[in-house]
Protein backbone atom coordinates (compact mmCIF):
# COMPACT_ATOMS: atom_id res chain seq x y z
CA UNK A 1 0.00 0.00 0.00
CA UNK A 2 1.03 3.61 -0.08
CA UNK A 3 -0.20 5.92 2.65
CA UNK A 4 2.41 8.68 2.58
CA UNK A 5 4.41 10.16 -0.26
CA UNK A 6 6.63 13.03 -1.31
CA UNK A 7 6.57 15.54 -4.16
CA UNK A 8 9.22 18.18 -3.67
CA UNK A 9 10.01 19.03 -7.30
CA UNK A 10 6.59 20.12 -8.64
CA UNK A 11 8.19 22.58 -11.04
CA UNK A 12 9.64 19.65 -13.02
CA UNK A 13 6.20 18.25 -13.81
CA UNK A 14 5.47 20.53 -16.77
CA UNK A 15 8.57 19.42 -18.67
CA UNK A 16 8.27 15.77 -17.66
CA UNK A 17 4.62 15.43 -18.66
CA UNK A 18 5.30 17.31 -21.87
CA UNK A 19 7.52 14.41 -22.93
CA UNK A 20 4.71 11.85 -22.69
CA UNK A 21 3.68 10.31 -26.02
CA UNK A 22 0.92 12.28 -27.72
CA UNK A 23 1.03 15.25 -25.31
CA UNK A 24 1.58 18.61 -26.99
CA UNK A 25 0.48 20.97 -24.18
CA UNK A 26 0.65 20.83 -20.40
CA UNK A 27 -1.33 23.18 -18.20
CA UNK A 28 -1.69 23.71 -14.45
CA UNK A 29 -5.00 25.63 -14.34
CA UNK A 30 -4.80 26.22 -10.59
CA UNK A 31 -1.00 26.60 -10.50
CA UNK A 32 1.55 23.98 -9.51
CA UNK A 33 1.39 22.50 -6.00
CA UNK A 34 3.91 23.49 -3.31
CA UNK A 35 6.74 21.16 -2.33
CA UNK A 36 5.54 18.53 0.13
CA UNK A 37 7.47 15.95 2.18
CA UNK A 38 4.69 14.12 4.00
CA UNK A 39 1.49 13.90 1.98
CA UNK A 40 -1.25 11.89 3.70
CA UNK A 41 -4.72 10.61 2.75
CA UNK A 42 -7.53 13.21 2.58
CA UNK A 43 -4.96 15.92 1.82
CA UNK A 44 -4.69 17.61 -1.59
CA UNK A 45 -2.47 15.99 -4.18
CA UNK A 46 -1.74 16.80 -7.83
CA UNK A 47 -3.15 14.44 -10.44
CA UNK A 48 -2.61 14.45 -14.18
CA UNK A 49 -5.48 13.97 -16.60
CA UNK A 50 -5.09 13.92 -20.37
CA UNK A 51 -7.69 14.75 -23.02
CA UNK A 52 -6.42 14.13 -26.53
CA UNK A 53 -3.13 16.08 -26.65
CA UNK A 54 -3.74 18.34 -23.65
CA UNK A 55 -2.50 17.33 -20.18
CA UNK A 56 -3.75 19.08 -17.05
CA UNK A 57 -2.11 19.01 -13.61
CA UNK A 58 -4.93 19.52 -11.12
CA UNK A 59 -5.44 19.43 -7.33
CA UNK A 60 -7.55 16.56 -5.98
CA UNK A 61 -8.48 15.05 -2.62
CA UNK A 62 -6.44 11.90 -1.94
CA UNK A 63 -9.27 9.52 -1.17
CA UNK A 64 -11.80 8.72 -3.87
CA UNK A 65 -15.31 10.13 -3.53
CA UNK A 66 -17.53 8.04 -5.86
CA UNK A 67 -20.69 9.66 -7.21
CA UNK A 68 -22.86 7.81 -4.70
CA UNK A 69 -20.94 9.10 -1.65
CA UNK A 70 -23.20 11.19 0.60
CA UNK A 71 -20.40 12.62 2.77
CA UNK A 72 -16.68 12.30 3.47
CA UNK A 73 -17.14 10.09 6.52
CA UNK A 74 -15.55 6.64 6.76
CA UNK A 75 -12.08 5.38 5.83
CA UNK A 76 -10.68 7.30 2.85
CA UNK A 77 -10.40 5.28 -0.34
CA UNK A 78 -6.78 6.27 -1.01
CA UNK A 79 -5.64 2.90 -2.44
CA UNK A 80 -7.43 0.62 -4.90
CA UNK A 81 -6.30 -3.01 -5.19
CA UNK A 82 -5.52 -3.95 -8.79
CA UNK A 83 -7.01 -7.39 -8.24
CA UNK A 84 -10.50 -6.00 -7.61
CA UNK A 85 -10.44 -2.50 -9.12
CA UNK A 86 -12.52 -3.56 -12.14
CA UNK A 87 -15.31 -5.07 -10.05
CA UNK A 88 -15.43 -3.38 -6.66
CA UNK A 89 -18.32 -0.86 -6.55
CA UNK A 90 -16.11 1.86 -5.07
CA UNK A 91 -13.75 1.82 -8.06
CA UNK A 92 -15.26 0.06 -11.08
CA UNK A 93 -16.85 3.15 -12.66
CA UNK A 94 -13.65 5.18 -12.35
CA UNK A 95 -11.62 2.25 -13.68
CA UNK A 96 -13.80 2.14 -16.79
CA UNK A 97 -13.65 5.83 -17.68
CA UNK A 98 -11.71 8.01 -15.21
CA UNK A 99 -7.99 7.29 -15.32
CA UNK A 100 -5.25 9.61 -14.13
CA UNK A 101 -1.60 9.62 -13.13
CA UNK A 102 -0.35 10.53 -9.66
CA UNK A 103 3.22 11.91 -9.67
CA UNK A 104 5.65 11.16 -6.84
CA UNK A 105 9.28 11.94 -6.11
CA UNK A 106 9.23 9.14 -3.55
CA UNK A 107 7.06 7.45 -0.94
CA UNK A 108 7.26 6.07 2.59
CA UNK A 109 6.69 2.54 3.77
CA UNK A 110 7.03 1.06 7.25
CA UNK A 111 8.90 -2.18 7.95
CA UNK A 112 8.86 -4.13 11.20
CA UNK A 113 12.36 -5.25 12.15
CA UNK A 114 13.47 -8.30 14.10
CA UNK A 115 13.28 -6.23 17.26
CA UNK A 116 9.57 -5.61 16.64
CA UNK A 117 10.03 -1.92 16.01
CA UNK A 118 8.58 -0.23 12.94
CA UNK A 119 10.99 1.81 10.86
CA UNK A 120 9.83 4.06 8.02
CA UNK A 121 11.78 3.85 4.77
CA UNK A 122 11.90 6.38 1.98
CA UNK A 123 11.65 4.81 -1.49
CA UNK A 124 12.64 6.45 -4.77
CA UNK A 125 12.92 5.43 -8.41
CA UNK A 126 16.20 4.40 -10.04
CA UNK A 127 16.06 7.79 -11.74
CA UNK A 128 13.50 10.51 -12.38
CA UNK A 129 9.98 10.68 -11.06
CA UNK A 130 7.50 7.94 -10.28
CA UNK A 131 4.18 7.81 -12.11
CA UNK A 132 1.49 5.88 -10.24
CA UNK A 133 -1.66 4.60 -11.90
CA UNK A 134 -4.64 6.47 -10.48
CA UNK A 135 -8.40 6.86 -10.74
CA UNK A 136 -10.48 10.01 -10.28
CA UNK A 137 -14.07 10.88 -9.42
CA UNK A 138 -16.14 13.97 -8.72
CA UNK A 139 -18.52 12.84 -6.00
CA UNK A 140 -19.71 15.61 -3.66
CA UNK A 141 -18.70 18.05 -6.44
CA UNK A 142 -15.07 17.58 -5.49
CA UNK A 143 -12.25 16.19 -7.62
CA UNK A 144 -10.77 13.20 -5.81
CA UNK A 145 -8.39 10.36 -6.61
CA UNK A 146 -7.04 7.01 -5.50
CA UNK A 147 -3.77 5.19 -6.19
CA UNK A 148 -3.81 1.67 -7.65
CA UNK A 149 -1.69 -0.93 -5.84
CA UNK A 150 -0.55 -4.44 -6.70
CA UNK A 151 1.32 -7.22 -4.97
CA UNK A 152 4.92 -6.19 -4.33
CA UNK A 153 7.65 -7.19 -6.74
CA UNK A 154 10.21 -9.71 -5.51
CA UNK A 155 12.67 -6.87 -5.09
CA UNK A 156 10.38 -4.92 -2.75
CA UNK A 157 8.41 -7.56 -0.85
CA UNK A 158 10.86 -7.42 2.07
CA UNK A 159 9.55 -3.93 2.79
CA UNK A 160 5.81 -4.48 2.30
CA UNK A 161 3.47 -6.90 0.58
CA UNK A 162 1.89 -4.17 -1.56
CA UNK A 163 3.36 -1.71 -4.03
CA UNK A 164 1.84 1.18 -5.99
CA UNK A 165 1.36 0.37 -9.64
CA UNK A 166 4.20 2.45 -11.05
CA UNK A 167 3.87 2.82 -14.79
CA UNK A 168 6.71 2.49 -17.26
CA UNK A 169 6.86 5.26 -19.91
CA UNK A 170 5.25 3.06 -22.54
CA UNK A 171 2.36 2.19 -20.18
CA UNK A 172 1.28 5.75 -19.38
CA UNK A 173 -0.75 6.38 -22.52
CA UNK A 174 -2.52 2.99 -22.53
CA UNK A 175 -3.48 3.47 -18.89
CA UNK A 176 -4.89 6.94 -19.50
CA UNK A 177 -6.82 5.75 -22.55
CA UNK A 178 -8.63 3.07 -20.57
CA UNK A 179 -6.73 -0.04 -21.63
CA UNK A 180 -8.16 -2.99 -19.69
CA UNK A 181 -5.46 -5.55 -20.49
CA UNK A 182 -4.35 -7.64 -17.53
CA UNK A 183 -0.73 -6.60 -18.04
CA UNK A 184 -1.52 -3.08 -16.81
CA UNK A 185 -2.75 -4.50 -13.50
CA UNK A 186 0.30 -6.65 -12.89
CA UNK A 187 3.07 -5.57 -10.48
CA UNK A 188 5.21 -2.74 -11.80
CA UNK A 189 7.92 -3.56 -14.29
CA UNK A 190 10.08 -0.87 -12.71
CA UNK A 191 13.17 -2.23 -10.97
CA UNK A 192 16.13 -0.82 -9.07
CA UNK A 193 14.29 1.14 -6.37
CA UNK A 194 16.42 2.98 -3.81
CA UNK A 195 15.42 2.65 -0.15
CA UNK A 196 16.83 4.26 2.95
CA UNK A 197 15.64 4.77 6.52
CA UNK A 198 13.49 7.87 6.99
CA UNK A 199 12.97 9.95 10.09
CA UNK A 200 10.31 8.33 12.33
CA UNK A 201 8.84 11.82 12.71
CA UNK A 202 7.15 11.19 9.36
CA UNK A 203 4.56 9.22 11.33
CA UNK A 204 3.03 12.52 12.46
CA UNK A 205 1.16 14.10 9.54
CA UNK A 206 1.85 17.55 10.95
CA UNK A 207 5.55 17.11 10.21
CA UNK A 208 6.31 18.21 6.67
CA UNK A 209 9.92 19.18 6.01
CA UNK A 210 12.88 18.06 3.91
CA UNK A 211 14.79 16.39 6.74
CA UNK A 212 12.17 13.62 6.95
CA UNK A 213 13.67 11.88 3.92
CA UNK A 214 17.22 12.13 5.24
CA UNK A 215 16.86 9.58 8.03
CA UNK A 216 16.53 9.71 11.82
CA UNK A 217 17.58 13.03 13.27
CA UNK A 218 20.79 12.87 15.29
CA UNK A 219 20.52 14.03 18.86
CA UNK A 220 22.85 16.88 19.72
CA UNK A 221 24.93 16.37 22.86
CA UNK A 222 25.80 20.02 23.31
Automatic annotation (TrEMBL):
Keyword match DNA damage: yes
UniProt-recorded Gene Ontology molecular function terms: lyase activity; peptidase activity; single-stranded DNA binding
A Pfam family: SRAP
EC numbers on record: 3.4.-.-
Keywords annotated in UniProt: Covalent protein-DNA linkage, DNA damage, DNA-binding, Hydrolase, Lyase, Protease
Keyword Protein biosynthesis: no
Gene3D superfamilies: SOS response associated peptidase-like
Superkingdom of source: Bacteria
Enzyme class (EC, first level): hydrolase
UniProt-listed GO biological process terms: protein-DNA covalent cross-linking repair; proteolysis
InterPro entries from the UniProt entry: SRAP, SRAP-like
Family: Belongs to the SOS response-associated peptidase family.
Entry protein name: Abasic site processing protein
Amino acid sequence: MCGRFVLFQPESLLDAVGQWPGVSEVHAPQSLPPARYNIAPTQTIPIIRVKETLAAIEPARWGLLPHWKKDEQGPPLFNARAETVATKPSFRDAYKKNRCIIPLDGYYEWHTGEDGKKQPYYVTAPEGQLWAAGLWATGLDKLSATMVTTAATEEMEWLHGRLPKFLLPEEIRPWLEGDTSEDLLQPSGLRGFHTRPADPAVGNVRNDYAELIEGPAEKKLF
